[in-house]
Amino acid sequence: MDLDMFLDDAPGSLVVIAGSDPVRGERHHKAFAPGPLPDQVPSFAPSTFLAVAEQWAALDRKLTPSPSMSLDRPVGVALRQTQAISPELPG
Known about the structure:
two-stranded antiparallel ribbon; alpha+beta; single chain
């Protein structure tokens, strides 16, 4: 992690973390702890809410699995490959 990214105007601070594991022994590093959220939500214009809702809908359409599990999705490719070499699986 590039610690310099969190020095100037980051909305939080760096905190020291430590631990150990059997292979590497004691470990010390820093983690980013975000600052508290504001007490009040900023006011936005209705057009802003509409734009955000439209983007969420577009993202949802992209993430909804296709019924045909098309080849442009890695899960579909892996499933088709598995079905091709495993006679027990339907497909």
